[in-house]
Amino acid sequence: MSDSPRPLRPAGDSEKITINLGYVDLGHIDLLVQDGFYSNRTDFIRTAIRNQVERHAEAARQSVRRRSLDLGLRHISRQDLEAAQAEGRMLDIRVLGLASIAADVTPELARATIGSVSVLGALQASPAVRAALADRTA
C-alpha cells in the first residue's frame, strides 16, 4: 500500500457532477419519479450508479488491491509531509475516493515530498499545490 500516515475514514461529503442525457432517457426517469419509484431524478441516478458499482464490486475490489489504492478519505497534513521530508522519503498518493492536501502545505513542500498523485474521485488542494504537482498527477 502507499505511505498512509493514519487510518482512512469514509468520505462524508460528495462531489457534484454533470451529465448529459437524451430526452427519451430523461423522460423515462421523470416517469419513474412521477409513478413514485424514486423521490427525484437524483435519487434515480444515485440508485443506478450504486447498482452498477455493486454489480462490478468484485472486479473493483481486485483492481483496488492490484493498484494499491487507499479507499475512502486520505488527508495529507503539513506534519505528514514534514515527517516524510525528515525521513528522506517521497509519498505516492493513490486514492479511490477523496484525497485532500492541507491548506497550509506549500507548493515547495509538496514538490519535495510527493512523488506521484493518482486519485480516482476527487483531489482537494490549493491551486498553487495543484500546479506544483501537475507533472506528477495521473
Automatic annotation (TrEMBL):
<protein>
    <submittedName>
        <fullName>CopG family transcriptional regulator</fullName>
    </submittedName>
</protein>
<dbReference type="Pfam" id="PF17723">
    <property type="entry name" value="RHH_8"/>
</dbReference>
<dbReference type="InterPro" id="IPR041088">
    <property type="entry name" value="RHH_8"/>
</dbReference>
<dbReference type="InterPro" id="IPR010985">
    <property type="entry name" value="Ribbon_hlx_hlx"/>
</dbReference>
